[in-house]
Amino acid sequence: MLNPDFLKNGPGPRLAFIEIPDAKLIAETLVAFANTEGGTLVVGLKHNGDAGVKIESEALPKALKEADSLCSPSIVTGNWEPVEAEDNGTVYALRVPRSIELHALSDGRVLIRDDQVNRPLGGQEILKLASAKSTGDYESEPVPGATKDDLSKKMIEEYIAKRAERTKRPFNGKTDDLLREIGAIDTADRPTVSGILLFSEYPQHWLPQSGVVFAKFVGKTPRGENGLAGYTRREELTGPLPRLIESAWNLIWSEMAVSAVVKGLEREETTEYPQFAVREAIVNAICHRDYRLKGRRIEIRMYSDRLEVISPGGLPGFITVENIVDEHFSRNPRIVNGLFQWGYIEELGLGIDRMMEVMEQSGHLPPNFDARPYSFAVTLFNSRERQVVPEWVRNTNHRQARALQYIRDHGSITNREYRSLCQGVSAETLRLDLADMVEREILLKVGSKKGTYYILK
Questions:
Q1: Which of the residues 95, 121, 169, 377 has the least number of beta carbons within 10 Å of its own beta carbon?
Q2: Which residues on neighbouring strands pair with residue 260, listed in sequence order?
Q3: What's the pLDDT tens digit per position in 200-227?
Q4: Where do the DSSP E strands lie in 218-305?
């Protein structure tokens, strides 16, 4: 029986509640999850998390079969699993994996999961998603010429240790079973693209396009005097993806300007760019680049006024610059999950949000996103004339900053609204966030129990 803790944060991009086993509603959610990042469908709860009618488990297989008949093509799912939902009795959960195919309903609608709702796509969005789906699941393809012995035992052991640390559960199974489960090797024990990228000591032997090129320029353009290259340092980085992230970060860190101010008796250092924003730009490029594109590597260009991280491949699926904060679609979900378990991604789906927040909190201009057919670039600007940011804003974490922005936009925030903003974060962590801001007199708590809400003090 599944642990009910995953129900606490309510519906979101990867979790949906349906009160009764209605085949049409089930079909819509199957299509939306399959076309996006996958997710879990729970039958027996109202949208707000309250108990629905008692579900007869015998009716579920019939409803699923009828729902599947409304999906084109058919969607592969797991089986219904019972969940003891505390005061709400037994409900039933169905896991829906992300699909490499484009799915539609029998009436022609193509849906995606957009936060808590299943949203139909328009014509251009459908074409863009179809184009992304038609490329197939490249990261799960076996790498010609590679064998399981080419995977580094040291890298695998490091991953298992980090995974156990994040999940709070030690791994006691067989390593090969785990590698198959995460898609690092296929059923014939051949290393896949994601397996080689994550666990080989030198993936560039098979995938030379998987490296990173770093260049530090003197001025604001690539050209120096007399038309010559204007860079003072150029490095080519190789190795598995976790090592690439660290190597790229260390290079940028070594070239970043660091200023210092004295406040009272303490010396406070400020980096040229917020650390989280830089790491997020690197991680996003490595996670989401199109590894099918040969002949071009990720480029990191450091100018006097900006930092550019350029990733080969356009935005995946239906993602656009306009919806990049709100929508989520991974070209390489196995790589994303691997780096998440490794600890390089803090909270899935919240990185762009937080990147924008930390840039704002540091007084910089917001990041610039430039999407082209075969590349995507993130630019972080090094604003020399920084905005005056209140001290209390600078001393909040990224979740609290999102809550403060929400209050500025809506006037107040409730616990439920805060949970919706921060999917995947425990209710207790979010409660402590709010309590901390009340204690520091940033927020004022109004009301009690279910009627509690928070406003700026």
A1: 169
A2: 269
A3: 999 999 999 999 999 999 888 887 666 6
A4: 231-237, 258-263, 266-271, 298-302
User: Which fold is adopted by the domain 135-388?
Assistant: Heat Shock Protein 90 (3.30.565)
Q: What is the pLDDT of residues 333-370, one digit of tens each?
A: 899 999 999 989 876 667 888 888 888 888 888 899 99
- 370 token code pair: 């430039």
Say which CATH architecture domain 391-456 belongs to: Orthogonal Bundle (1.10)
pTM summary value? 0.68
Predicted confidence (pLDDT) per residue in 52-91, tens digit: 778 888 889 999 999 999 998 899 888 899 988 766 678 8
CA-wise closest residue to 254 among 216, 223, 289: 216
How many C-beta atoms lie closer than 10 Å to residue 189's C-beta? 12
73 alpha-carbon distance from chain centroid: 27
The answer to whether the CB of 93 falls within 8 A of the CB of 80 is yes
Return the CATH class of domain 4-134: alpha beta
Instruction: Parse the chain into domains and list their residue ranges.
Output: 4-134, 135-388, 391-456
Two structure tokens written together for 91: 């409900």
